[in-house]
Amino acid sequence: MELLFLFMILPFFIYWCVNEKKGAQLSIVFLLSIWVVFIYRYINDKIHFNADFRWIMIAIIFTGFIFLRKPVESLLSKGGYRAYIITAAVVSFLMILYRPGLETVLPGGIFLGMGSGYCLNKKYIGFKCEDVLQRKGIAKILTLFARFAIGMSVLIVIIFRVESIIQSVSQSQNIFLYGFLCYAIMSFWVFVAAPWIFIKLRLAGIYDGQNEQGNE
């Protein structure tokens, strides 16, 4: 949990305070990379890969993202939000097929919450990260700082609560399911609940039209 939390601070900050689409894209790359590291750690105990193998896999993920991002977006856009949510669910499921430890379920749960949350945000909330309600200078900086402070404060509380729940069900046969759902809820806060709070607190604006929402 601690490793993932530290790695995800940057994409979360970008999602809340710089550009929501780039933040979500960076989150995907980070999650897939962390998932590779977790899986590598377990498989390596049996197969003993070369130490550089995991970095090769991470490099492949970053390279693939650079070249495949636009074609995949173009394909999914034809199916609308439903296609994005289904894709997020399928990828999340594939990520948790091999689950030798609870931490390998973590990226999959976060991926599902992120994918569904991002789509719900775009369809129903319209959080526009770059809109600071015409504030400039120190007012703009304080607005962005308030977003990040609120978002991270609640996220930290959720993380501690999730860890408490996981520990309480550590002997349950359904611990992977509980962990998966808790992690999905955690990222749901980041990608849809927090943006909704920002808008309600007058810390962010929204896209004016449905067609505008996909063009940020």
Number of helices: 7
According to DSSP, the number of beta strands is: 2
Beta-strand share of residues: under 5%
Helix content range of the residues, please?
over 70%
Tell me, what's the shape?
A: globular
- Radius of gyration from the alpha-carbon trace, in angstroms: 18 Å
H-E order: HHHHHEHHE
Q: Ends: how far apart?
A: 31 Å
Global mean pLDDT: 83
**Unreliable stretches:** 210-216
**Largest sheet composition:** 2 strands, antiparallel
Q: Kindly name the structural category.
A: mainly alpha
Taking strands numbered 1, 2, ... along the chain, how are they ordered across the largest sheet?
A: 1-2
Q: What is the number of domains?
A: 1
What is the compact description of this entry?
This protein is mainly alpha-helical and 216 residues long.
Word description of this protein:
With 216 residues, this protein is an all-alpha fold. The chain has one domain (2-212). 75% of the residues lie in helices and 2% in strands. The protein is built from seven helices and two strands; from the N terminus they run H-H-H-H-H-E-H-H-E. The protein has a two-stranded antiparallel sheet. Helix 2 crosses helix 3, helix 2 runs antiparallel to helix 5 and helix 6 (137-168) runs antiparallel to helix 7 (175-200). Residues 210-216 have low confidence and may be disordered.
